[in-house]
């Protein structure tokens, strides 16, 4: 694979965020009869022939691949995150059979492809990133699922044409400068007895306080608030939720998030203090996620 020529191809859409070349590339791919397995690696197989170098070229034009992993006919997309760890953490807590489900901040749809194992009535993803939608479109070109991918943000949820029985909103809250407004939008997106699964970075402590990074947290510039679980609970109550249940807390490790050759940027090991990995490079507590389940009614 000539990575330099792929980089040049990528620059075509990256300059103007014009995804037309990605769309056109997907349209050149054949329609195959496939088998689809929703294991830790979302895996596609076919007895029909596929040009793997061409498929890899198209997939690499869509880098960075953050969420996965995926195995497309033997092409292993070793994503930055082993998202199976988050999915498997949450898996014992939900049953989506016959439900209308939304994944808000769905990225390339990794979790949505896995949700299909429960045969939900409907799956809708919201994410305003055209690049991540292109990754979804590449995989769904072969899967041909009924998943609906909307290029919308969480802020659009109250105005959406339908309400959901179950909403997942994972890894988005810390990116929002008004977390209570975001939680209200999620509340308004639910049916009256609906439930929300949410995870966010948290800090330790029993008091209702939040860390407000000055410029960045873990080198991520668009992180605004990192609450204690108590502060998170208070936000959720103020947004209208009736119950707040902590499902667990998980320290992010380099087993879950690491640099692979499907991203070009840095990853967790560069975000932590090399002399003390309990701290970020900024000196804040290292990333820990809190997982919660909230009920509307
Ligand atoms: C840290 S990633 C989390 C991805 C995935 N939900 C997970 O937990 O693995 C944040 C995602 O939120 C998306 N995002 C950015 N702005 C958003 C918004 N206003 N509403 C919803 N999602 C947004 C990003 O494109 C990205 O895919």
The CATH architecture can be named as 3-Layer(aba) Sandwich
One letter per element, helices H and strands E, the order comes to HHEEHEEEEHEHEHEEHEEEHEHEEE
> What Rg, in angstroms, do the CA atoms define?
19 Å
The CATH class name reads: Alpha Beta
From the spread of the alpha carbons, the general shape counts as: globular
Helix content: 25-40%
User: What is the first-to-last residue Cα distance?
Assistant: 54 Å
* Strand elements, count: 17
Structural class designation: alpha/beta
CATH superfamily: Vaccinia Virus protein VP39
How many H/I helices? 9
**Mean pLDDT over the residues:** 95
Total domains: 1
Strand line-up across the major sheet: 9-8-7-10-11-17-14
Bound molecules: S-adenosylmethionine
Q: Major sheet, described briefly? A: 7 strands, mixed
Question: Strand content of the residues, in percent?
Answer: 25-35%
Unreliable sequence segments: none
Q: Which fold name corresponds to the CATH topology?
A: Rossmann fold
Overview of the structural elements:
The protein contains nine helices and 17 strands. The chain has a seven-stranded mixed sheet with strand order 9-8-7-10-11-17-14. It is α/β, with parallel strands linked by helices. It has a single domain, classed as Rossmann fold. It is globular, with a radius of gyration of 19 Å. The protein has helices at 3-16, 20-27, 52-61, 84-90, 110-115, 130-143, 179-188, 229-239, 268-271, and strands at residues 34-38, 42-46, 67-68, 70-72, 75-77, 81-82, 100-104, 122-126, 148-150, 164-170, 190-201, 210-211, 226-227, 243-251, 272-273, 276-280, 288-295. The structure holds S-adenosylmethionine.
